[in-house]
Amino acid sequence: MICQPVCLPTMRRHWLLVGACGWVLLILMFVSKFINFSFRTPDYAGRSEIFVWTLSSVTTKLPSVVWPEKGASQPYILSSVSPSVVEPIDWHLVNEKRLEQLSTVCSNSSIWNLTHTTVRKFVLDRIFVCDKHKILFCQTPKVGNTQWKKVLIVLNGKFSKVEAIPENLVHDHERNGLPRLSSMTDTEIHQRLNSYFKFFIVRDPFERLISAFKDKFVKNPRFEPWYKHDIAPAIVRKYRRSHHDDSESVGLRFEDFVRYLGDKTGRQHLDRQFGDHIIHWLTYAELCAPCDISYNVVGHHETLELDAPYILKSAGIAGLVSYPSIPPGITRYNRTKVERYFSGISQRDIRRLYARYQGDFSLFDYPKPAFLLN
Hints:
alpha/beta, four-stranded mixed β-sheet, 48% helix
């Protein structure tokens, strides 16, 4: 059949109608993104929270505060500017919540021996002093302390910016210009503890142990041979269950390390033998005495991108120095890594390890690692 000229206007109207419907469909799809938007953000323990936004909540309401489950380390609100942006609430409130948790656990008599430490020279050795700006910083290894030391070195006037500080100088306490609180008189110590701004940083206890193991017994980037040549063989001899292989050549395994750390009484002789080198796996309570010294801020490694600016501002030094840039996501809790390292380790050894670090988990509101213990 050959279409007559009268058919042409009809076909043209048909295609115009199809095109108009297509545009309407595209517009509706675009608008729907703003009318009902939902997304999922992971927390550091592998769980996720679902947020749902509607157009009315963007235009007529302030975004509500969402506190993730225990252990996620920070509360969030959804941005009123863009529903795809997650923003932290006032970080002062976050810190207050952390200090409340710390105070509550410190008063718990059932785990008193895991949370309280005498403020003796060993603890004072961990605290670095910036008299010029009245700041005390307690060092907790394997949570990014190198960068905070750089901040204090700049504040003390040794260098003009953190980027200019040589890495080998940071931990050279004879040359880095960072006095320790232990170097002062009793009167000077008490005066500073009572009046200076005090802070320290924590991290999930088990992930911190993995970091210590890798840094000291696997990679050893600062070339500290005593970890591999003295400490590792001593742990292997006492805690390796099978000696069919050559213990010295195989080196320390993570399961040996866990067994040593979880041995409540047997490790004490080795700890005395190892001296101050054990600071990399001591508890936060043993290092900084958080139940016996009133700290102003407790930062979390998992949220360091947000904690660092807050600490600088709270200490009154935000305009004087900046914390080195942090690659996005690098400090977040990695459950997959924790599961991988603990796979094959007996429940008995993991429970003993948790019993030792239970105080740290509780003091700083880190979730009990049920996925390892059950």
